Amino acid sequence: LNGRSFSQQECFTKAVELMPEDTSAWYRLGRLGGGTVYGQSYSSKECFIKVLSANPRHTSAWCGLGVEGGGKVRCNSYSSKDCYIEALSLDPRNTCAWCGLGAEGGGRVDGASSSSKEC
Questions:
Q1: pTM of this prediction?
Q2: Where does the pLDDT of residue 112 fall: very low under 50, low under 70, confident under 90, or very high at 90 and above?
Q3: 4-36 per-position pLDDT tens digit
Q4: Taking a C-beta distance cutoff of 8 angstroms, is the pair 37, 17 a contact?
Q5: Residues in contact with 93: Cβ distance below 8 Å, sequence separation at least 6, in sequence order
Q6: DSSP secondary structure string for all residues of the chain
């Protein structure tokens, strides 16, 4: 714009400023490590929580929150393992969630137990 180049983070920050309800922009900002929106700093974890508060069916945001150690979404606390299980309950073919669940030692998804080796 006018000869100035913008980083990915600056682009997604601007997108969030222009349309704060855009969960896609918040998710991408989270993937880039977070950013400062209107003077307030948001970590990756906080960006993923913003996405999930607006759209609890966003499987990639569940995986992102799992990578960040889990967090509180809509008054409920989720561990990393819980986040991966949430993602898998929405999309049983989500490879990120299977890898994350495996790294967490396995767990129960939709009533079936999976060991870390099976994940």
A1: 0.89
A2: confident
A3: 899 999 999 999 999 999 999 999 999 999 999
A4: yes
A5: none
A6: -TT----HHHHHHHHHHH-TT-HHHHHHHHHTT-EEETTEEE-HHHHHHHHHHH-TT-HHHHHHHHHTT-EEETTEEE-HHHHHHHHHHH-TT-HHHHHHHHHTTEEEETTEEEETTT-
